[in-house]
Amino acid sequence: MSAADRSAGRPSAAAPAAGASTTGLSPTAPSSGGRSAPTAPAAPSAAERSAAVRAYRPALRPGVLMSPPLLRGPRTVHLIKHPVSGAAFEVGPKEHFVISRLDGTRNLDDLVSAYADRFRLRLPEEQWTRLLGLLGTRGLLAGSPDPAPPGPAPARTGGFWKGSRRTVADAHATTGRLYRPLRPLLRPWVQLPLLAAVLAMTAALLARPAALVDGTLELLGRPSALVPFAVFLWFSICLHELAHGVAARHYGGVVSEIGLRWRFPTLMMYCTVDNYLFLPGLRAKLVVAGAGAYVNLVLLLPLALWWSLLDPSDPVRPVLTGMLFVGTVQALSNLVPLPPLDGYRMLCHLLGAANLAPETRTYLALRRGGRDAVAAYPPRARRVYTGYALSWTALVLLAVAGSVTCAVLLLLR
């Protein structure tokens, strides 16, 4: 899936800066009238400053996005995203606990007891002040000035051999126009029968593996059928990407780009969902990630119906068998949990992990130094990264073995 999530990239760590400003928390003395000379207001005492800080009831600005907990290396983090600039940064569970409760009705005293119940620690006033300073500096508090919106992405990047080009001026509006007429088709009473048909088609194909090889050879030997089917597959891949965008719109996602990406000589469409990690609930993330492969399989259903109605001796049937097999393999291969495929993103969502493959490589590199080198990793992180490394190895070996087997069978026929 090329629906890359910009906010899924590794954001800068949110280390609160000491001495952050608390502008607006300290009272000021009224100016004197008459002819008396103006005098500088007396500096508030430490007790007055502390009282002002404790009485302050901050609220997050509308539209701030917060992700569920994500495993990133040895740490569990949450992503916080600005609604205007799109900037995202990480916070730990303690900071997220406090930030998620900033609704304008709570002050420090209100949060101290809840914080103590959750973490068995007292929320220090200086940590509260630093956190407010960080949020204010990043423009995440209500009343903070709006930052300048990000400039438009370049229309084209890269060169002749490798690059991308944005083809839609307003991708979010375009997917919205597609979503509105398709919305009735996304209801369960439509999707459940389609899902059942897709599963039945897949099961019927896999029930006769020998016929799949014969059908593939028959398809490869007929250019008059192979060329139109190749064009059909290319358009199917384009619809695959648009399906990610339409599904994201269904769950409140923001589609930021639609364009073409090339790796010479191939040319493919891509669709970028800007707030992929912030979609509500696990189901929404899994549906958006799997929507492309699902649409590819649904597009094969008319061929499957034609195939099922033909007599087994009909010469067209083997060609259709090859088409269905190639199309099914193309769709299901996207669900393999290896980057950058859709299945990899689905696995990351299921495990609640960010950057699973790079973090696994980092963990394995550290693990070579012995157990002490990975002492900072909690047991869950060790299980996740070790399990993914073993699964990755098994999948690669299985893919190589399957490819070799298919090549041998095709050569021997």
Describe this structure in words.
The chain has 413 residues and is α+β, with helices and mostly antiparallel strands. It is built from 14 helices and 9 strands. The protein has helices at 46-55, 93-99, 108-119, 125-137, 171-182, 188-206, 209-220, 223-250, 281-299, 301-309, 316-332, 342-351, 356-367, 379-412; strands at residues 12-13, 65-66, 70-72, 75-81, 88-91, 156-158, 162-166, 255-263, 266-273. Strands 1, 2, 3, 4 and 5 form a 5-stranded mixed sheet that branches. The relative contact order is 0.12. Residues 2-34 have low confidence and may be disordered.
Strand content: 5-15%
Question: Which series of helices and strands comes N to C?
Answer: EHEEEEHHHEEHHHHEEHHHHHH
Category from helices, strands and their pairing: alpha+beta
The helix content is 40-55%
The whole-angstrom Rg is 28 Å
